[in-house]
Every structure is written in C-alpha cells, then in structure tokens.
Design a protein that fits this description.
The protein is an all-alpha fold. Helices cover 76% and strands 0% of the residues. It folds into two domains: 68 residues; 178 residues, MetI-like fold (Orthogonal Bundle), CATH 1.10.3720.10.
Length: 303
C-alpha cells in the first residue's frame, strides 16, 4: 500500500502544478482584460473633470490633473442633454416593461408541451430571427401606422427579441412540471400560475432579460435616429452622435455664454456627455448583476 501511495504521488504533484499554472495564467489574462476595459473609462472621466489646458495639452490620461465641473455644468444646462436623457429614460423604462411582459406572455405558452400550434409558432419565431424583411419595409410599416416621431415608434417594433424569448422559454421548460401540475389540480388558471409560481421561480432569467432589454433600449441609436425627425424626440444616443458631429459649433456657442472659462474644450464636452450618459445603466447593473450569469447559463442549457 505504501509503494502504491508513493508511486502516484508525483503524478498528483504534477497535476496540482499544472492546475496552479493554468489558474495563474487565467488570473493574469482576466486582470489584463479588466484593465483594457477600465482604463478607457477612466480616461473619459478624467478628461471630463480635468482643466481644459491640460486636456488640450494631452496631459490627461487615467487620473484627473485637477477638478473642474464646467464641462459637465454646460452639458447639463446649456444643451438638450437632460431632455434627451428624459426621452431615453421613457423609452427604456416603458420599453423594458412592455418587452418583458410580452416575452413572458409568449415564452410561457410555448414552453407548455400541451399548447396547440406550439411547433408552428416556434418555427415562425426561428424563421423571423434568421430572415428579416429589411430596413425599408420596417420603416414603411412604422410610417403607415403613424408611429414616426413617437415613443411608440421606438418601442413597439422591438417589443420582443427572439433570442430573449427562447432563453426564457428554455428556462420555463426546465422548471419542475410537478409544481405546475399541482397548481392546475388545485384549480389555478394560467394567469395565476404565471404570476404566483412561474415568475417567482424564474427571477434569475427575468432579471437577465430585463437587463438585456434595458441596455438594448438605452443604447439603441440607429432605429431611434431612423424613426424620429424632431429634436424634441431625439434620444440620448442620437444627441451624443449629433454632439460629436457638431462639437465645434457647440464649443463656439459655449464661448459666447457667460459664466464659463477656458476650461471648456471639445474633448472635455464630449467626455462629460459620455460620462453622464452611462450613469443610469451603471446604477441599475448592481441590483441585477447577481442574476445575470445564472440566468444566461440556465436559460441556454436546454435546446
């Protein structure tokens, strides 16, 4: 017994050494990846609050060389930033609510094996996910319905995303069928089952879908630009694009404004607008981050 024990001990040591090496490489890789993500954000924030002379001189990297908030103050008070953020908040909040309810209402019946027409409807969703009519037909539909330059025009065409629906459907299918069957025996209807049993048991995937929809609505630029025509309806992403494209005009307007000094620069104004635009999503993420990994993993296992 002792000979056998010592015979396999070197193999175990080599295995432990290999595992430790792989773990060190993984930690180094993830650390480098984190720096690649964080450093550009630090640079943008630093340019937003650093003195204009340092920004123009290229002396600002990953830490502010000083503190001044004139760029942020001008973005908030001298431009349409707040109105555009309000539009984005309206679209994100109501769009996410409508999309989550629509996704749940679609995924639950498709997850039930006794639902008639389940195969055909599922095939239609898969078909529409692969083949899309195109930008012009979609625009014609929105225009024909009179939704151009409205909140509904930005929200309703994206009320459901097929990938999110299938993720939630797979999660519902993985729930214990005995719980649902016992509720049916007790006389509970489908609405009662969904609201009292299915949704409470599906918090991870619902939180994940909510985050995906919220980020999608918040970052949507192309369709918001396509379906809006007036300045009063532009969302934050459209505002940021217009600000960057016309930053010299914005800077010229700021020069004529009173109460602002030479700290206002084109890079500082752009960095301030970008920094302010990410605050809502950054505030939302910690509340549902713990559900994100489990929701995507569990909801994607079953095909």
């Amino acid at each position: 017994m002792n000979k056998r024990h010592y015979k396999f001990k070197p193999d175990k040591q080599r295995s432990d050494h290999s595992e430790r090496t792989v773990r060190i490489i993984a930690y180094v890789f993830l650390t480098v990846l984190c720096f690649l993500v964080i450093l550009p954000c630090l640079n943008v924030i630093s340019e937003a609050v650093s003195p204009g002379t340092d920004v123009l001189g290229g002396h600002v990297f990953f830490w502010p060389t000083g503190l001044q908030f004139e760029n942020i103050r001008y973005i908030l008070t001298g431009t349409s930033f707040l109105h555009s953020m309000f539009n984005s908040l309206i679209v994100t909040i109501f769009g996410t609510l409508i999309s989550v309810l629509t996704t749940i209402g679609t995924a639950y019946p498709l997850s039930r094996p006794d639902f008639r027409g389940r195969t055909i409807i599922t095939f239609l969703y898969v078909f529409s996910m692969i083949f899309f009519g195109g930008m012009i037909p979609a625009y014609m539909v929105v225009k024909t319905l009179g939704l151009i330059d409205t909140y509904a025009g930005i929200i309703l065409p994206f009320a459901i995303v097929q990938f999110n629906m299938f993720m939630m459907k797979n999660y519902f299918e993985a729930l214990p069928p005995e719980v649902i069957e016992s509720a049916c025996v007790d006389g509970a209807g489908d609405l009662k089952i969904v609201s009292s049993i299915v949704c409470p048991m599906s918090k991870p995937v619902i939180a994940t879908i909510t985050l995906l929809y919220a980020v999608g609505y918040w970052n949507n630029y192309f369709h918001a630009m396509l379906y809006t025509t007036s300045t009063k309806m532009q969302t934050l992403q459209v505002y940021l694009k217009n600000l960057i494209a016309n930053i010299q005009d914005t800077l010229a307007e700021s020069v004529g404004s009173t109460g602002y000094s030479q700290n206002l620069t084109s890079d500082g104004l752009t960095a301030s607008a970008v920094t302010m635009s990410i605050i809502p999503i950054v505030l939302l993420y910690p509340f549902i981050a713990r559900y994100l990994v489990s929701g995507i993993t569990i909801g994607s296992v079953k095909g």
